[in-house]
Design brief:
Blueprint (H helix, E strand, L loop, with lengths): L6 E9 L12 E7 L15 E7 L13 E5 L13 E6 L2 E6 L5 E6 L5 H5 L3 E7 L5 E7 L28 E9 L28 H7 L1 H4 L31
Antiparallel strand pairs: 1-2, 1-10, 2-3, 3-4, 5-6, 6-7, 8-9
Organism: Emiliania huxleyi (strain CCMP1516)
Pfam families: Glyco_hydro_16
GO biological process, one term: carbohydrate metabolic process
């Protein structure tokens, strides 16, 4: 994984077609989302030593009940993810899916498809972690209203599926690997929240100035990418990139 302040590496999947509707109604699978920042830069455990796995889903666009299907973990070695290659795996079948790191025994996120549909799952109250302790462990949880009311006017877009409890994760997805830089927005759960990230050079709500604010702090974050402030044309170091040893896929 890359090393560098405000880098956002991800290994994730999106549906090959929006059979159930636009994002996130047709689903999203995040095997890995991490950060390039050093230790605890965005709160305990929110750094390049840790990563999260998440499923995004909702019966209408623009929302996601991801808090029901999210988990975070660290490398079994205990070191930064940027120091060595790791295996980031996904096992996925009609009865459920799970993500793991390095070995199938190191499960990060496990979601069972047989017990309840995603519509029923998302209709329940969510639990938001608002305080993390050592190693990113959640110390305090806060209940919050669900993204939709299963007994109300919201319709279930997935009930026509041949595998209704697995939908929208019952269709073909494609793999993406990318490194983004920063993000903006107004929600507290964003990847670089204002109230948690130390020394962040932009505010998420200042969408008109966020990019210029970020660039204006070039001297503070460019060295963390391995770049030379006095000679920026030399570029960042190799350590600021996502380095891929292999991508492997086995069909059922």
């Amino acid at each position: 994984m890359p090393r560098g302040d405000w880098l956002w590496p991800a290994i994730w999947l999106l549906p090959s077609d929006d059979a159930y509707g636009g994002w996130p109604t047709s689903g999203e699978i995040d095997i890995v989302e991490s950060r390039g920042n050093g230790r605890d830069a965005c709160g305990p455990g929110q750094d390049n030593w840790h990563f999260g796995s998440t499923l995004h889903f909702a019966p209408q666009g623009g929302k996601s009940a991801f808090l029901h299907t999210h988990s975070e973990a660290a490398a079994p070695s205990g070191g930064p993810l940027s120091d060595a290659f790791h295996v980031y795996g996904l096992e996925w079948g009609p009865e459920g899916l799970y993500t793991y790191i390095d070995d199938r025994s190191n499960i990060v996120l496990a979601v069972n498809f047989t017990k309840e549909s995603f519509f029923d799952r998302g209709s329940k109250w969510e639990m938001t972690c608002f305080k993390r302790g050592e190693g990113g462990r959640c110390d305090s949880w806060l209940p919050s209203l669900p993204e939709w009311d299963g007994g109300g006017a919201t319709k279930d877009p997935w009930n026509g599926s041949a595998l209704p409890k697995a939908a929208p994760f019952d269709r073909a997805f494609y793999l993406q690997l990318n490194v983004a830089v920063g993000c903006t927005g107004y929600n507290d759960w964003l990847f670089f929240p204002d109230h948690l990230c130390k020394d962040k050079p932009w505010r998420n709500g200042d969408k008109h100035t966020a990019e210029s604010d970020f660039l204006g702090s070039f001297e503070s974050w460019w060295p963390s990418w391995g770049g030379n402030v006095t000679d920026p044309a030399r570029g960042a170091s190799r350590n600021a990139s996502m380095q891929i040893e292999s991508v492997r896929y086995w069909a059922p």
